[in-house]
Amino acid sequence: MKKVVETIHLILEKMILAPDAGTAANTGNITIVLQSPKYAGNVGSIARTARNMDINGMIVVRGEPLEEADMKQMSTHFAADLIDHISYFDTLKEALADFEYVVGTTARKGHARGPLISPKEAARRVADMSQMNRVALLFGPEDTGLSNDDLRYCHAVATIPTSQKFKSINLSHAVMILCYEIFVARMPAAEKFSPRLAQSAELEGMYDQVKAMLTKIGFLNPENPDYWMMHLRRLFSRTALYSKEVKIIRGICRQIDWYFENKKA
Questions:
Q1: How far apart are CA 110 and CA 88, in angstroms?
Q2: Nearest in space to 75 (alpha carbons), one of 96, 92, 52, 94
Q3: 186-187 and 23-24 as β-strands: parallel, antiparallel, unpaired?
Q4: For an engineered disulfide with 82, which of 47, 153, 176, 192 has Cβ 3.0 to 4.6 Å away?
Q5: How many CA atoms lie within 13 A of 127 on its CB side?
Q6: Radius of gyration, CA atoms only, the chain
Q7: Pairing of strands 135-139, 186-187
Q8: Are residues 47 and 82 in contact, defined by beta-carbon separation less than 8 angstroms?
Q9: For the purposes of burial, counting CB atoms within 10 Å of the CB of 132, is it exposed (0-12), middle (13-18) or buried (19 or more)?
Q10: How many alpha carbons lie under 13 Å from residue 41 in its C-beta half-sphere?
């Protein structure tokens, strides 16, 4: 009987500890990226959210002029240093250049904006990718959200389920929901982490070269080349390319280009 009781205690202990087992996301590799935020108060609230969830990196891209005092009022003194260390960029391409994995967010659904995943699934992927990759969590402006053009930089796009009666979520609330899921997410201890991927800047160089090559050989419609490029971006995003693989693809493009130039001669 004693052995049975001990076994039951062991099973219950495992059940209680199970949610905390495994490896947490490496929040030191995670940065919140805000595309064109309009209100200083929201940026301040997001800084406070970031501190709550142990994230210390923030980037603002092409936003409205933001009053530092208003940001710090909402961040409170606990996160005021995050406001002091925000990095500012003129373009999203520049802001994301050094990241290997980008998760976008959207409330709007559509053929050109998916496939979409839940915050919990996004968190699971980030917990894995953040071990060896720099991860950007990308959020759009308060009124319009991320555009289709913004989402093309993303490896994954998360959407937060809401009531059909009122879908709009405050920007800082959306950031908190995703960051909370990442904070509590765990990777199984025995599972191997994804290795370092190609940086966004490397991928964008590859996409530019692929686009030019496919246009040259007549595969892409020169009047609307981005339609098919969107599908190619999704394909490569699912594959999660390494730097070496990007170099191979760019080498193939160069060789095809060389062949066509020499064939004409």
A1: 30
A2: 52
A3: antiparallel
A4: 47
A5: 23
A6: 22
A7: unpaired
A8: yes
A9: middle
A10: 3
Which tokens belong to 23?
């490896």
The confidence score (pLDDT) of residue 15 equals: 43
Provide the token pair at 49. 């959210």
Specify the CATH architecture of the domain 20-187. Answer: 3-Layer(aba) Sandwich (3.40)
Least confident of 143-147, 161-165, 219-223: 219-223
Does this chain's domain 20-187 share its CATH topology with 200-264?
no
Q: What pLDDT, in 10s, does the model give residues 167-210?
A: 788 999 999 999 999 999 987 765 677 788 999 999 999 999 99
The pair of three-digit structure tokens given for residue 18, joined into one six-digit string: 């199970």
Find tokens 């960029």 and name the residue.
89
Instruction: From residue 3, give the alpha-carbon distance in Å to each of 11, 13, 17, 71, 172.
Output: 12, 15, 21, 59, 51
Question: Residue 22: how many CA atoms within 13 Å on its side-chain side?
Answer: 19
Closest CA to 156 of 192, 194, 213: 194
8-49 per-position pLDDT tens digit: 455 444 444 444 457 899 999 999 999 999 999 999 999 999
8 Å CB contact between 150 and 141: no
Domain ranges of the chain: 20-187, 200-264
Q: Which tokens go with 241?
A: 């390319």
CATH architecture of structural domain 200-264 = Orthogonal Bundle (1.10)
Beta-carbon neighbour count of residue 127 at 10 Å? 25
